[in-house]
Specification:
With 393 residues, this protein is of the alpha+beta class. The protein contains twelve helices and twelve strands. The chain folds into three domains: 170 residues, no CATH class; 78 residues; 118 residues, no CATH class. Helices cover 55% and strands 18% of the residues. The strands form two sheets. A six-stranded mixed β-barrel has the order 4-5-10-7-9-8. The longest helix has 43 residues. It is elongated.
Length: 393
Amino acid sequence: MLRYRLRSGLIIGCAALGVAGAITVVNYASGGREEILGQIKRLGTNIIVVSARQSRAVADRERTGAVVTTLVPGDYRAIRDEILGPVPASASVSSALRLKAGFLSTVAPVMGVEPEYFKMKAWELSNGRWFGPEELRRSTRVALLGHKAAKELYSERNPVGERLFINRVPFEIIGILAERGPGLDASDEDGQVYVPLTAAMRRLLNVEYYNSILFEIPELAAMQQAEKAISQLLRRRHRSSAANPDDFLVQSQRELIDTQIAAADRLQFLVSWIGLSAIIVSGLGILAIAWIGVRDRTREIGTRRALGATAYDVFFQFSLEACVLAITGIAVGIAAGWFATLTIAARAELKFVFDTDNAILAVMVAFVLNLLFACWPAIRAAKLDPINALRHE
């Protein structure tokens, strides 16, 4: 093995590349799956969203983007009293408003929500405090900033306690929300400002209707039944008919979640096959190098046989050489896969995930395949006729 350094290095490299490739692609897919599961958790798996439609027909003509004002507090109360009971819920209103912090002025989405909104979204604070029911009741002018909005308005400075003007109305910043990143619903929650629902409706927008209402359902199995019951109640309250279609939309995250999980599982399956293919290709490389090695060492084999070595001795020698080199390559591949996973996760801004079970499976498959591919040239070496081997040029 030391005499044929290039050949030994190639065998180690083939084994290492196969294992490292398999580990890296599977870990990359696992990191993507963890990211999706994190986004699903932030969305809320048991949440039903009742929202006002953003377009409706007026005089048989479609008015795209018209604001629907029929989702009112009475609907909110009726859904909780007649269907869901005292479940966590939050109505919301939103609009793009002018923000002014010091000498900086910009336009950003402002959402009015209830305190339960952040619990339903499993959102955490990075600094400051939440607003509570008393501030909601009194329409207190306090605000929570998304991570991106805080950075754009105040750079690296801590803005908690400072004054923010929203449409020239002063609000006190009481907290900064933790960074969430892009969600499955493509909304940029980090770039928004959140204020108490009543403060947004009375002090900023002067409206008596909601853009949407979120309800958290205790059991996932009851989601479909709850959606149907809410739709029937709102159709009755809004007098929907064939001539007067629904002016609301009832949605759950179920279909979106199922689609994303199915896509993640499909990606995991495909990259597993890619990893297996990498191991097979690396094994074929070991086979080719070992096969060439047997041909180049034919006279050596003949000399050993002439000096009394048995066919088993020759087989054991070549098998042991290939196995030692392959095992060394597998060990190098594990280390390379770990560093490659760490590097790719950092560059792709994914969570670092090292799937130990898949790594062990990849090592076992690589070891078995490399052993089989190494034994084939060893069998060929053991079957060489000593006389013909000595005459080989």
